[in-house]
Structure formats: structure tokens, C-alpha cells
Amino acid sequence: MTGEERRAALLARLAALPPERREALRALTLAGAAAGRKAPADGGAGGAGAQEVPGSAEAGRSWPLSFGQERLWFLNRFDPADTVYNTPWCVRLRGPVDAGALAEALTRVAGRHHVLRARFRLDGDRPVQVVAPAGPVPLEVAEIAGDPAPAVVELVNRPFDLESDPPLRAALLRLDDGTSLLCLVLHHIVVDGWSLDVLMRELAECYAARREGRGPVLEELPMQYTDFAVEDRRRDRTARLEYWTRTLAGVPVLDLPADLPRPARWTGRGGQEPLRVPGGTVARLEEVARRERCTLFMALVAAYQAALGLLAGQDDLCVGVPVAGRGRTELAPLIGYFSTTLVLRADLSGDPTFRELLGRTRVTLLRGLQHADAPFEQILGALRLPRDLSRPPLLQAMFNLHNMPKDDLLRTSMGDLEVEVYPVPAAGRTKAEVSVDLWRAGEGLGGVLDYGCDLFTAETARRFARAFTGLLERAGTGPDLRLSELGGG
């Protein structure tokens, strides 16, 4: 059979999959969802501004996908119109924007990071990524009258054709108040949260250098994401998978009390409620954590697990937490999809005190981090869990404390321009039934609780949020209270 025949056969098999199998793969994907040497002063070789780095001569060659990329590729294949994994970042620019310099800066960054020029195709019966030659990155420029939100939403919700088009799009929206919006949208298959910080750092340096008539000063890249993908496919993870199959054997689903009948299939429709943890509560919780040789993150996760357990009436449940997946220093300056999900199984048995639960959480988290180099999809495959299309597999709850590098994401200048973050309107999607995201906000924490609209009303989501924040307050002032005494709110 020729390569074309194998390709056609695989596509036919994908198209012939029953709806249940497609939904299973969708659910799998939704569940699986931080100083170096200086570069030459000219920022690199090539007419498009590409920096020569190891492997730059390999443009046009086929490379394997990392395990995380493969998961996202499958989802895009089954539903090319789905934009849930479009990753946006938008900033407001104050001052005269040089569109030509901005386009050149984008081209230089894409020239350095091969993954931003990747196309994702079938080679025989396997997906591969092919690095396109360095070339200009298009910058859409438009004049916007009135509220720019609809134009931003349209840009963000425009699907990517991963086979034919670059996985990065950029637009400069000139507003009638004299400011501009720079909107970047990347498919998650080439980027994660850490990568956005790298992207903004390099983009700002390249733009400033162009405006100042000098070459950009950038880190020399020790490798490319495609090199990482090759390593990812070759790594032997047998021992780590054995750990996870032992640790997660027999784990139950999280069964929170729902307001609405559970749909036969998980849709990912979501709502959002704000969260706020006062500075005094955070300080007390941090003190409790320090006394137990724990971090604030461990204390927050323990409290979240406790709140979920009390709401669901369970003493055994799992919470997923994202980890950066960059355990080696040479991965720090790269743009790419490295992040993965760590599964933390909570043991709430015996009505422990919060202090006791904190100790259990510490052990669970540290052991999990020791075995974090196991792709989530491989863990699911090894567990052989019964399929339930009505909920995400294994992880119905997620938690994240945003503490990755973000100095450049939140930068206030770019060359001669003033910069401020422009919040992208909520997409109305969620990857879990309940998910908490927190970040530093002054002395306290700000955040959101995302929830599945097919299961919970907004009032119930607010009750969940109050249960969590109330438990944080009580745990900080009374760490020796038992879980049964920490409920309420």
C-alpha cells in the first residue's frame, strides 16, 4: 500500500468512527487540557529574521508529535471548527504603533521558534509536524469603531487549519480612541502559558530593536520543540505508568450534587463565577503551611479537595493540577506545548484535621511530581477506566494557582509604546465540571470558578465558591479543626 493509500485508509477509519468514540476522544482531550547565552546582535540569519539554531537546516522535514500534541491533533481532526483550544493574548497599545516593525518582530520570533511555523499532517498512518521555511508572518490591520470586543471574539473564535495554515495569527486593531489592540491567537498545540511569556518577551525586544535601529538581543536557543518531541516519543515511562496505575486503581468519579439532569454526553458548556481570598486569609494560611513544611499551593489544594469532598459526601476523589513540564533548564526559553496534568488523589478518610490533611496532600503532591513525566493520555490508557461519555474521564475537578513566569505577559511597555493587558471575553467553555483558577492580586488572591452549565446553575456555582473560600478562612484560623467542622459557608 502506498503512502497516499495508507493516508486515505486512516482518514476513512477516522470518518467512520461512531459518534460515541468521537465523543470519548473529545472527552479525553478536554481532560488532558516556567539565562542563557546571547544571540548575535543581528538576531539571526535569513531574510525573514530567523535565527540560526540547532536543527534550523531541517525545515521541511517531518517530525513526530509529542504525546500532548497528538491529543490536540486528534481533537482538531474530529472537529476542525471547534475553537476551545485557541489560545489568545491581547494587549492595548498606547502611542504611535509601527505596524511594519510589529510584523517584522513577529516574523523574527517565528523564525527562531520552528514550532510556530509547523504544519500538522498525516504521513502514512501517523501524524507529523513539518516545519515550513521561514517567511513573513501576516499581521492583519483593521480600523475598529466602537467596542472592539466583537472583533476580538471573531479573531479568537476563527478555527485553525493545522494542516495548511500557521498555528499563529496576529491582528492590530486600531481603535477610535487613539489606542490599538494587538491580538495574538495560537493553537494550544504549539503553546502553553509559559510560552506566552517567552513570546511577549521576544516580541517586545524585537519591536524595540527595530524602532531603535539596532539588532535584537535574544537568548540563543539550545534546541527546538521538535527535538523535544522526538525525545518525548522515545522516553521509557514504564515505571512511572506502573506508579500511576497503582496509585489510581479503583478511583471513583467525583459526584457533586447537580441541579440539572446529567446529559448523555459531556458538552463542555461553561459558566464562570469570580473568587476573592482576602490578604489576611492568605497570610494565615501561609503561616499554617510553613509550620507543616508545605507551600501555599499545597494548602490551597488541600482546602479545595476538602471542600469538594464535603460537597459531594466523598472521602476519595481526584483533582487535576497543571504542571509546566519543563524540568530541564534548556526547555525554559522555548515556545511549545510542554504542560501536562498531574492527578492528585485525595484521602479524606477518618475525618482528619486540616493539618493532617495538609500533610497527606504534601506527600501526594511530592510523590506525584516525582512521576510527573507520564503523559495524561498514557495514564488513562493504562488505567482502562470504564467509559462514561457524560463526564470528563478521571478528572472532573481542576485547580490552578498561576505562578508561572509572567513578567513579560504583564509588561507595561514595548519599545516606545505603553502596554496593558486587554482581557479577552469569556469563551463559555470549560474542560472540567468544576475548575478553580487563582492568582496573586495585591495581598490576597483573585480568581474564578468555572463550572459546567449543563449540571449547575449560577447560584450553585456561587455556593461552591463560598464553600471553598469559607473553608480557607476557617482552616487558616483553626488548622486543628476536623473536616466535619470546617464545612459550611
What does this entry look like structurally?
The protein has 489 residues and is an alpha+beta fold. Residues 1-57 have low confidence and may be disordered. The protein has helices at 3-16, 19-31, 67-78, 99-112, 149-156, 193-212, 225-234, 238-247, 279-291, 296-312, 354-370, 376-383, 458-477, 483-486, and strands at residues 62-64, 86-94, 118-123, 126-131, 139-144, 168-175, 180-187, 270-277, 316-323, 340-347, 397-401, 413-414, 417-421, 434-441, 444-452. The strands form four sheets. The protein has a six-stranded mixed β-sheet with strand order 5-6-7-2-13-12, with helices on both faces. Strands 8-15-14-11 form a four-stranded mixed β-sheet, covered by helices on one side. The chain has a three-stranded antiparallel β-sheet with strand order 1-4-3. Helix 4 packs across helix 6 (193-212).
Blueprint (SSEs and pairs):
Elements: H1 3-16, H2 19-31, E1 62-64, H3 67-78, E2 86-94, H4 99-112, E3 118-123, E4 126-131, E5 139-144, H5 149-156, E6 168-175, E7 180-187, H6 193-212, H7 225-234, H8 238-247, E8 270-277, H9 279-291, H10 296-312, E9 316-323, E10 340-347, H11 354-370, H12 376-383, E11 397-401, E12 413-414, E13 417-421, E14 434-441, E15 444-452, H13 458-477, H14 483-486
Parallel strand pairs: 5-6, 11-14
Antiparallel strand pairs: 1-4, 2-7, 2-13, 3-4, 6-7, 8-15, 9-10, 12-13, 14-15
Helix pairs in contact: 2-3, 4-6, 8-12, 9-10, 9-13, 10-11, 10-13
